[in-house]
């Protein structure tokens, strides 16, 4: 059971892909979508959220696309997850639905989410790129 939404997982993969393939020029959204077998329409809002949060930089024009907005070691998996949390329905529960939710379940899960966030913040894009390089050529996409 994945703990992260699919869009967050795909966003992490997209940022790593851009870190690997943007060798001095932006990576087109269409290239990303093709490599990861996704619809560009599905990927574009995720990429825009990453731009809005300063993780990626969008480059316009015929050779446009996306590149990292900061150094790899300054982007964590937690940064990416937080940015993609703004895409689509956040799934948050409204307060006041029940005392059990408000006073027991939500506070307990908030502690777990905080621990998970701390762990994700220790994983940098640079770490993940190193993992990719160690696994080449056995990786596809």
Plain-language structure description:
- The protein is mainly alpha-helical and 141 residues long.
- The protein contains six helices and two strands; from the N terminus they run H-H-H-E-E-H-H-H.
- Strands 1-2 form a two-stranded antiparallel ribbon.
- The model has no long low-confidence stretch (mean pLDDT 86).
Jot down its keywords.
single chain; 141 residues; mainly alpha; two-stranded antiparallel sheet; 2 strands
Secondary-structure map:
Elements: H1 6-21, H2 29-35, H3 40-52, E1 56-59, E2 65-68, H4 77-84, H5 99-121, H6 125-135
Helix pairs in contact: 1-3, 1-4, 1-6, 2-3
Q: How would you briefly describe this protein structure?
A:
The protein is mainly alpha-helical and 141 residues long. The protein is built from six helices and two strands.
Would you list the SSEs in sequence order as H and E?
A: HHHEEHHH
How much of the polypeptide forms β-strand, as a percent range? 5-15%
Describe the main β-sheet briefly. 2 strands, antiparallel
Principal-axes shape call: globular
Q: Which segments are poorly predicted (pLDDT under 50) over 5 or more consecutive residues?
A: none
């Amino acid at each position: 059971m994945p703990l992260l939404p699919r869009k967050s997982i795909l966003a992490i993969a997209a940022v790593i892909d851009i870190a690997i393939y943007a060798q001095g020029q932006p990576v087109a959204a269409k290239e990303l979508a093709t490599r990861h077998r996704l619809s560009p329409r599905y990927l574009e809002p995720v990429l825009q959220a990453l731009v809005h949060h300063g993780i990626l930089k969008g480059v316009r024009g015929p050779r446009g696309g996306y590149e990292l907005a900061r150094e790899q070691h300054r982007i964590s998996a937690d940064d990416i997850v937080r940015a993609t949390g703004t895409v689509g329905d956040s799934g948050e529960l409204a307060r006041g639905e029940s005392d059990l939710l408000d006073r027991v379940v939500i506070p307990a899960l908030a502690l777990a989410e905080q621990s998970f966030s701390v762990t994700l913040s220790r994983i940098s894009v640079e770490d993940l790129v190193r993992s990719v390089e160690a696994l080449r050529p056995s990786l596809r996409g």
